[in-house]
Amino acid sequence: MGAKGLLIILAILAVATLVYFLAPKGKKRDGVVQALFLAPMVVTFAITVGIPLVVGVFYSLTDWNGLSFKNFVGLGNYIKIFSQNDYVYSLLITMGFTVVNVIAVNVLAFLLALLGASDVRFSKFFRAAYFVPNLIGGIVLGYVWQFIFNKIFTLAFPVSMLTDPNLAIGAIIIVSVWQYSGYIMMIYITGLQSVPKDVLEASGIDGASGLRTLFSIKMPMIANTFTVCLFLTLVNSFKQFDLNFALTAGAPARILAGKAIQSTEFLALNIYNTAIAKSNYALGQSKAVVFFVILAAVSLTQVYFSKKTEVEM
Amino acid sequence: MKFSRIIALLCVVAMMASLVACSGTTEAPATVAESQAPANTVPESNGTADTPNAAAPGAAIRLVNGKIEIDTQLKAFAEDYKARTGQEVIIESLGGGVDISAQITNYHASGNMPDMFVINSNEEEKFRELFADLSNEPWVAETDAYLADANGKVIGAPYAVEGVGLIYNADVLAKAGIDPDTLININAQHAAFEKIDGLKAELGLQAVAAVAAESGQMYWSTGSHIMSAYFSMGVERDDKTLINDFNAGIVNPERFAQFAEYVKLLFDYADPSVLISGTYDDQLALFAQGKTAFLTQGNWIDPSLPGYNATFDCGLLPYAFLETDTPGITADAPTWWAVYNGGNVEASKAFLTDITISDAGQKMFVEDAGAISAYKTCKYQPSTPVSANMFKKMQSGPTYAWDWSNMAVGIAQNTLAPLFELYAKGTIDKTQFVDMTVTAVADFIAAQ
Fold first, then answer.
1. B101/A253 CB distance under 8 A
2. Does the distance separating the beta carbons of A250 and B414 come in below 8 Å?
3. pLDDT (tens digit, 9 = 90+) per residue, B36-45?
4. Shortest Cα distance from B7 to chain A (angstroms)?
5. Could you tell me the pLDDT band of residue A8, with boundaries at 50, 70 and 90?
6. All domains of chain B, ordered by start, with CATH?
7. What digits encode the pLDDT tens for the residues B279-335?
8. How much is the pLDDT for A138?
9. Which residue of B lies nearest to A161 if distances are taken between CA atoms?
10. CATH class for the region spanning A79-309
11. How far apart are CA B231 and CA B326, in angstroms?
12. From the candidates B1, B106, B276, which should be mutated to test the interface with A, based on the most A CB atoms within 10 A?
């Protein structure tokens, strides 16, 4: 930055001004003005999203070590990551976690929302209470729950859930659902409250039962809320990192195809460990690119299908 | 129509110009009059802004320290140094799980490199192009623990010596009638474990040893520190065969099997709950509260002991996994301070010389920070229990090198630690532990 950056911007402006005054009246001039007004958006987007993405993909094709790179390796990194047991394993458990977590969070959040949006006594208090876990950071939650699993639950059960490879994933799901459903509940409550009263009244007069109203009126009317909530939970489950990092950090170990691997290392943690712990930045970058592609594909598909079911208001 | 367009254009230009002007460091606030004629106005360029790190002589120098525990002491020393020499030194301490190497990488990427930074021996290759040559510094002659690159160029100054091993509670051993100086081979240690196990109730112990083998957050304790014995126990300091072979993917199965025998011993006599799910705090608390006789850590636990009101005396033993006697302890400089060749090299060198071999510097490290000096001329002696015992042993007997810190980056965390954990839980037996380690190390190196 500094003087060089200033000169570049001034030069661009000078060229723009020149083009503006030299160009014949009409479309070209409008184009310049439009370009100038668009520039702040385009530049910010390029700096924060566009350039990092392109540079990231570029680095994934090299042997970058975080400081510099010497060779292009083409698709070598991509071939390597899919031949790694632990990466494929991370990919699979992340998908499994996502499926279970999305269902659990949304079912629980929706049930809580039905309660929270009703006239039950203290409903406002419960709404706030269920929302609170979401205000605590995942790292703090992870350490608190680690204590609960290791020190408190072990008073009742012989072994800590965190020491068994299968149960440890269950433990992450429990904490994740506990943490996230309050937040999703709030969105569902907002949706439920937006259902027009006259429609509900009309269904009541027609003699629809509570359940019938729920399935035939409320749920279709808030289909767009479902879209938002499913999208949020899907993306967040897939990107799960902080809780995973603090609660298990990948432990406990399990044997897979004769090799000892970390049983709860989700995709984001696997990428972090590849780049940071193993200091293999290029490989981590390739994993991150694959991560991005999968996430984009899955979430776009989900939004596409969810949109189809939404009711035109 | 045309007029309003020009006004709009000028507004945008004025806005952008003032934004740019704000981001400069010395420019006066842009006036509207200046900004309205952008093509003709080239504000004075700010020369220093384009050349980061080329600090003027006398400017403050910055040290990135990797031991958060000695942050206060370093800052006090830096202030004293400024009072003596006029040179300001900014201490930036990282710790609490921050990956130092990654942080330095980030600083490099963002053009914010410190003048001096902490470095691990296995990262020498990655940062090779950034080091200033310290070969001719006066402190090099006063220590064996400096860090040199493959060509023999000195690149790092040690600031302390640390030791890993089996820490013992001297009071418990005395009550049990065991002389710690005899516990220097596997049979002696085994017998001691057995004896103390039988006297647990009498001695008020919960278990014989506090060992933590969970692979997520305690990977460094098993995968690095306990593993250190395999490379070093009974090996001459300059014999690097085992570590070089390891980094070529080869583990010696006979030696490792003997090592595995010892690891099994540690696990068998460890508190079972801390062993499979304990954190560092759990492990330390168990020992510091006097509930175990042994602890698998290092002399860095000293500053934490008063927090538990631990009044007993401690000492450090080797992970003596061989049947022959190995009286030495595993001690070395854990990390080094290097000088960035793009920073203020001369001022940094002067500071390093002062902090390593001046009387004030050595006093600060030993008396204030509780460290063991890496320099032969140091006349101060540590007073905290484990360090004091370790210092005594370093004076009188051989020491073994910390070759584990040269292991391929990341192998302890994702490869060795899971194996130790499975072994601790009994999921795999000794033969499987050995076989799987041999294969896993070969695979890890092959995948590099």
1. no
2. yes
3. 333 333 333 3
4. 11
5. confident
6. 61-161+333-376 (3.40.190.10), 163-332+402-446 (3.40.190.10)
7. 999 999 999 999 999 999 999 898 889 999 999 999 999 999 999 999 999 999 988
8. 84
9. B277
10. mainly alpha
11. 13
12. B276
